[in-house]
Design goal:
Layout lengths: L7 E5 L6 H9 L4 E5 L13 H7 L2 E5 L6 E3 L12 E3 L2 E2 L4 E2 L4 H4 L6 E4 L2 H14 L5 E4 L10 H4 L1 H10 L4 E7 L16 E6 L3 H7 E2 L4 H13 L3 E9 L5 H15 L5 E8 L4 H10 L11 E2 L5 E2 L2 H18 L5 E3 L4 H8 L6 H8 L4
Parallel strand pairs: 1-2, 1-3, 3-8, 5-9, 9-10, 10-11, 11-13, 13-14, 14-17
Antiparallel strand pairs: 4-5, 6-8, 7-12, 15-16
Helix pairs in contact: 8-9, 9-11, 11-12
This protein binds iron/sulfur cluster (SF4).
Iron/sulfur cluster (SF4) binds next to strand 7.
């Protein structure tokens, strides 16, 4: 995987005394450093623009996060929700997947930012977890960024893993398409941290997941994390349909279970490619060579375009069969799918988000 090399780091004054600032300047000693009193206007594009989105990935802002760090995952209207909380410790991503929804979601403000006030984040998490000790939380950090791609430079996991390792009622999920796990290998997660990978066959990675780790690199990283005491997760999402997709996905599933112990996997998820009309427009502008915008998709009640329902069900059932061959009782859920699809794939659908959340809670 090609490592991130920003052309410039822009630091909001007030962040100089934070661990993130020290880590950044140590990891990228030759990168141009500029200080500003507040994020400049160039950090907030006024209209969507391909060039601005491309340029945004090459400049890293270190800033203070002003609002709340933790929020409930927004899910998708009419779909079964998995009751998940997210921490936004950064915004945008140094990698560049063709299907990335940030191209639409962050079109107005695509600046690549890392938030230095991690102490505020931990205070907020402590309040939430401490107030609801009888409730089990799953918290992720990969909603509007990749959880680990910036970690070798900002050292975020060094600040948060020791905190979450001590909490009795949470699993922290670090979701990535990178192999940036060096920091994690020096920490003790005490069973409270799941490192998870979004998985696709190498042909899809080559064509659509630009700048990410190869399938082999993701598998090797997963194995190292398993050996270091982390729980593992894998997300077959977005699954892409193309001629001979079955061969590639089946082979990927086999390689996964040859590399890691399925009993150390906390959860797997499956979800097919999703688009919105706005995202399709953004992709067509930025990455017209992709094959992801040409296939037939239908609009769902949540405003998202997906493959035809019978095709989705067929894809999930096949994946489930290949997974169950090696991992008969591993926990699997569908991401942003309707109850009808759940029933057709698993023979049941969770009655509510709490039920699904409880199913995903580990036996500790
Ligand atoms: S790794 Fe995730 S956040 Fe980064 S570009 Fe790909 S889809 Fe977007």
């Amino acid at each position: 995987m090609q490592r991130f090399e920003p052309q410039e780091i822009v630091v909001e004054r007030g962040c100089e005394a934070t661990p993130m600032f020290s880590n950044l300047t140590r990891a990228l000693p030759h990168t141009l450093l500029r200080f500003v009193d507040a994020l400049p206007a160039e950090g907030a594009a006024t209209e969507p623009s391909t060039a601005k989105f491309d340029a945004a990935k090459k400049r890293l802002y270190l800033a203070k996060h002003k609002g709340e760090f933790l929020k409930k995952c927004p899910g998708s209207d009419g779909q079964v929700c998995c009751n998940y909380f997210v921490i936004n410790f950064a915004s945008n991503c140094p990698m560049d997947c063709s299907y990335c929804y940030l191209q639409e979601y962050l079109a107005q403000n695509p600046a690549l930012k890392a938030y230095a006030n991690v102490d505020d984040l931990l205070t907020e998490a402590e309040q939430l977890l401490g107030k609801h000790r009888r409730y089990f939380f799953r918290i992720g950090t990969g909603e509007i960024t990749d959880s680990l791609a910036l970690d070798p430079y900002i050292g975020f996991t060094r600040e948060v893993v020791p905190f979450f390792a001590e909490q009795p009622n949470v699993l922290l999920e670090l979701k990535t398409k990178s192999n940036c796990i060096e920091e994690l290998l020096h920490l003790d997660p005490k069973g409270r941290v799941v490192v998870s990978w979004s998985m696709n066959p190498q042909s899809v990675i080559d064509a659509e997941e630009h700048g990410t780790a190869s399938l082999q690199e993701r598998l090797q990283a997963a194995r190292l994390c398993q050996d270091a005491g982390y729980r593992l997760g894998f997300h077959f999402d977005p699954m892409v349909e193309y001629p001979n997709w079955e061969h590639d996905y089946e082979e990927m599933v086999e390689r996964l279970f040859e590399t890691v112990d399925w009993k150390r996997i906390s959860w797997l998820s499956m979800g097919v490619l999703r688009n919105t009309p706005g995202l399709k427009r953004a992709i067509r502008e930025r990455l017209p060579q992709t094959r992801l915008i040409t296939g037939e998709q239908v609009l769902g009640p949540d405003g998202k375009l997906r493959y035809f329902q019978p095709l989705r069900i067929e894809m999930y059932r096949k994946m489930l069969r290949w997974i169950r061959r090696s991992a008969p009782t591993v926990k699997i859920y569908l991401c942003m799918e309707s109850k009808q699809v759940w029933e057709q794939v698993f023979g049941y659908a969770p009655s509510c988000e709490k039920e699904l959340g409880a199913q995903m809670a580990p036996r500790i």
